[in-house]
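Hi U.,

Before I forget, here's the chain from the pilot set. I'm dumping it here mostly so it's searchable later in email.
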Amino acid sequence: MSSASLPEITVSPELLVAAQKSKAWDFQEAAKIVKRYQKSGYPETVLFETGYGPSGLPHIGTFGEVSRTVMVINAFRVLTEDKVPVRLLCFSDDMDGMRKIPTNVPNPEILEANMGKPLTDVPDPFGEYESFAHQNNARLRAFLDRFGFSYEFASSTEYYKSGKFDDMLKLCVEKYDAIMGVMLPTLGAERQATYSPFLPISPSTGRVLYVPMKSVNAADSTITFDDEDGTEVTMSVTGGNVKLQWKPDFGMRWAGLSVDFEMYGKDHHLNSKVYSRICSILGARPPEQFCYELFLDENGEKISKSKGNGITIEQWLTYAPSESLSLFMYQKPKTAKRLHFDVIPRQVDEYFQHLAAYEGQSIEQRLQNPVWHVHNGNPPKANMPISFSMLLNLVSASNAEDKETLWGFISTYADGVSPQTHPKLDELVGFAIAYFRDFVKPNKKFRVPTEAEAKALATLDSKLAAMDASSDGDTIQTEVFSVGKEHEYENLRQWFQALYQILLGQDQGPRFGSFIALYGIDATRTLIAKALKGELAN
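Structure:
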């Protein structure tokens, strides 16, 4: 990736000043890189790296790491007035040994038969690529490409086998004692007795071996160990014969590639000092680092490639636009967030709310607005007359299964609005139907109104009957409020919750006056009539 392949960015003097003062997390991280080279001057290219372990299908957290790094790159480009070339390297640790069988892949017996081998030597259980790593790498690249990221892909296997890491590996042999001095204090007594930073690939079985070194020879860059069959083997550390344990590998990669910035999840935080010390031992300056909190599934457990829990990229994009996912990734990266299907509608509506606010904001406020970061400083015009949550409730009330039915309500409510004039809204209509079908409809539970609620509903019906069919949401909302007060609801929230439970089959819902304006007064009266007859209740 060269700077020429990045989206164009214009840095005005006003933008530069605002960016230098910005408290947005990505500008704060970018400022660390600027400070890193304040005295020495910038290298030919500033390198940003992300890491990925292809031991399972890529999950949404992998996307998050790349998208957040891209946001830091964009902030860095502003702070340097886009005068410093940058690269984003997405590095796949595909030479790791297969240690666990994912639960979300077919033909697990294929993986079981190849346990311990480098992931690029494990057959693809899907039968589509030359290895399991190639399958997972292809999936990773496909969704990065789908989002239009400018990046370079790197394979650990290719880097080790092609000799790109040979000089660093020879240096690791020379610095063996120093590296062991860093690693051994982090291990228990039993592990200390067998630990080696080098993991040789068995010449007899092809598996990645976790064995102690009998000797390490700095003069000819060789190691000696016992193979799985007990045979003593001496081999060079170069040319893909060995790989490094993951902690030394992290530090070696930082040193060998001259990485300037890398972010990682909280599970790496305790080891980050180890990575940095090994990088320093190998003669390089550790990169600037950012530690983000992990994503959790609906049960509060860490999402995992091997478990396949949480939401996949494909699933999110089935029910919501990509911008909503980018917004989720941008917000509060140092806060652990539950990543499950219930968060999707809120993220969609928040995105369009931020977008609507952007136009009237000052440049300082815009840099605090997530849509600036989602769209690399160039967000589109806001043009969303109906919220996603409102669309969901419209689908719920109408039981619509196609876009045409929903557009019948929308075009009556909003004059001049059509799929042609508002393609983004048309996209949301499709998402709303899919989301309702899969997540709302199976859980809808209508109830019969109590005697008091039935009287209030009858009053609401008579109020609506007296209203003009073209009344707006505010006018209708006032009448809905008045009915609740007339029927002496001490807490009007109870009145609205009753409306949601009785008419929509759910505990929460939209601003009810706006919903009626969209759904239609006559259609709402029909809904009330069905509720009063007990025809809606499950």
